[in-house]
Amino acid sequence: xxxxxxxxxxxxxxxxxxxxxxxxxxxxxxxxxxxxxxxxxxxxxxxxxxxxxxxxxxxxxxxxxxxxxxxxxxxxxxxxxxxxxxxxxxxxxxxxxxxxxxxxxxxxxxxxxxxxxxxxxxxxxxxxxxxxxx
Length: 134
What we know:
22% of the residues lie in helices and 36% in strands. The chain is an alpha+beta fold.
């Protein structure tokens, strides 16, 4: 799993217990997962369909730097399934895991549309066609 997005836990992200508010973390995860799905499917029209059990493993406190890791585990005809882990950047201690997140690819009409993807598209492979044409 690649960890690309990092967040700095600030006072406005805390709950009354002085730890990272779960709602803030889930918002960050949903946004990052949507961006990942958009890049993988090559379409800005994707929606969150399903998020499985969310397992909060440990707390994060003000000043922590956390990182979000997301990877595709399955490609359906109109969907992409992802898995997610959030960990402390410095200690590498797991903070949260989400086993399954499903995003649906939509057409211009707002209905599920086939995306034609079957495997993960890596950044290093995204620009190969551009380099070949130069």
